[in-house]
Amino acid sequence: MAEIATLLERNLQQIFGEGDDALRLKVAEEILLEDAVFVEPHGVYHGRDEIVRIAGVIRAMHPTFRYTTIADAEVLHDQAGRVRWVAGEPGQPPAYAGTDFIVARDGKIAAIYLFFDGAPDPTSPPIPA
């Protein structure tokens, strides 16, 4: 059974940060329940396959962006957690910021809620290369 902090990190890097469709699907099968839901400002996506699909669409919009966490994951009773992050081109200031909130069941992600946090702090360090 995966820890919440690990689920948050893998979701950010290996689902939404992954450019290879086959690797994204493999990780999704490991960490997302089949009936998981992803809720973000532009839509609601039901089921693991639909989450994998929309993650690919999002990744294709910014194929070279990297996600960098800016705070440790916060966990509630091994059932839910959140992590704050920034995204952008390596070596450049962050282009945008967000917070992922997940709910887990049986060691996998049951729901992902994405909140955009507005413009990153202009003094934020560059995205690591």
UniProtKB/TrEMBL annotation:
SUPFAM superfamilies: NTF2-like. Residues 25-111 form the SnoaL-like domain. Pfam families: SnoaL_2 (PF12680). Transmembrane segments: none annotated. This is SnoaL-like protein. It comes from Neorhizobium alkalisoli.
